[in-house]
Amino acid sequence: MAWHELVNGEMFNLVMIMGKKEGISYNKAAELVNQMVLDKLEEVHQAITNLRALTQSNNEITTLQATAIERYIIGCTSFIGSSHEYHIRSSRFHV
Fold it and tell me: What Rg value do the Cα atoms of the chain yield, rounded?
């Protein structure tokens, strides 16, 4: 399921789509979507932990490669934080 889609010519976010498709309240849909997002964030955190461990334990990775991997991780986590901050501040997503 896309995070948004066109329904009857209007754009809907995932909370609204889930509410309509599952026949549940907006608040219940928001709770389910929030849990899905938290689950994905936990997966990302675990992947980052694993990637850092691999980088540190692999003698074949150069310092330059390790630095590039760390910058990539920082970019990913910055994006996640910025996206989360946007949604927290947006009155559209308050339940």
Answer: 18
Q: How many domains does the chain have?
A: 1
pLDDT tens-digit readout, 6-20? 555 555 678 888 888
The per-residue b/e assignment along 39-62, b for 16 or more CB within 10 angstroms, e otherwise, is eeeeeeeeebeeeeeebeeeeeee
Phi and psi based region of residue 46 (left: phi greater than 0; alpha: psi -120 to 50; beta: remaining)? alpha
Host H or E run for residue 5: strand 4-7
Q: What is the SS3 assignment for 89?
A: helix
Q: Give the domain range for residue 30.
A: 4-93
Decide: 40 and 11 in contact? Cβ < 8 Å. no
pTM of the model: 0.57
Q: What are phi and psi of 63, to 5 degrees?
A: -60, -40
Cβ atoms within 10 Å, residue 29: 22
